[in-house]
Amino acid sequence: MSVPISGKVIKRLTLYHHILSDCLLKAKEYISSQQIAELLKIDDSQVRKDIALCAASGKTNVGYNAPELKKAIEQLLGFQAQKAAFILGAGNLGSALAKHADFADYGLDIAALFDIDPAKIDRLINGKKIYPLSELHHVATHEQLVNKRRVEIAILTVPASAAQKSAELLVQAQIKYIWNFTPTILSVPDSVRVCNENLVGNFLEFTNN
Fold first, then answer.
1. What is the SS3 string spanning 131-189?
2. CB 187 within 8 A of CB 164
3. Residue range 45-83, pLDDT digits in tens
4. Would 58 disulfide with which of 44, 64, 181, 198, CB 3.0-4.6 Å?
5. What mean pLDDT comes out for the span 74-94?
6. Using an 8 Å Cβ cutoff, are 29 and 66 in contact?
7. Are 49 and 103 in contact (CB under 8 A)?
8. Which long-range contacts (CB under 8 A, 24 or more apart) does 17-26 make?
9. Alpha carbon of residue 31 to chain centroid
């Protein structure tokens, strides 16, 4: 992304992208900001303001060209720039994320998974190999294993009791971004960015409003 965009705007733009993808599946060429707003139950002016960031323009009484707007959002958010990531924890959640087909469309490529369970080692999930957690640093620095791309992103889905130790291993492997699905607040250097995915908090917020 060439300009700073707030997290809330990024989330809305990805929702617009979902809607536009659905339009293409239904062979619908145009969609208006009002239609998008109604689907998401937000203000039409907010949709138009967000779309203006993409330098996309619509036609009066017609709306936006769905394929063009979809491409504009992809360019603004940098979907084309492939980013490789590791998953730590090959349990139910980690495995589900590894199978998430949409990640590739958004530029996220799962390079490998890691676990401590001997029964899972060397298995493939969606074509990606599960390695012993003890080999994290070796795999992170082995060019052939990561297709000569520097892996700087990790998705953490280990049990809470193993979260901090896993984070420390990620720091040692020079991981710069941790997408944390554990209920643990991690202690990491200031150079490492952590995004805490608060599943319980999101659920409670949703059900109490």
1. EEHHHHHHHHHCCCCCCCCCCCEEEECCCHHHHHHHHHHHHHCCCCEEEECCCCCCCCC
2. yes
3. 999 999 999 988 888 888 999 999 999 999 998 887 788
4. 64
5. 90
6. yes
7. no
8. 17/70, 17/73, 17/74, 17/77, 20/66, 20/67, 20/69, 20/70, 20/73, 21/70, 23/66, 24/66, 24/67, 24/70
9. 25
Distance between CA atoms of residues 67 and 73, nearest Å: 10
Please choose, from the candidates 56, 58, 52, the residue with its C-alpha nearest in 3D space to the C-alpha of residue 31: 58
Please tell me the predicted confidence (pLDDT) of residue 202: 77
Positive or negative, the Cα torsion across 108, 110, 111, 116? positive
Q: What is the domain class of 7-77 according to CATH?
A: mainly alpha
Residue 128 pairs in a beta bridge with: 125
The angle at the Cα of 34, spanning 29 to 40, to the nearest 5 degrees, equals: 95
Three-state DSSP class for residue 33:
helix
54's CB contacts (< 8 A; 6+ apart) are: 13, 69, 72, 73, 75, 76
pLDDT band at 144 (very low <50, low <70, confident <90, very high): low
Question: Does residue 1 register a pLDDT over 50?
Answer: no
The structural domains of the chain, with segments of one domain joined by +, span 7-77, 83-203
Which tokens hold the place of 146? 């990561």
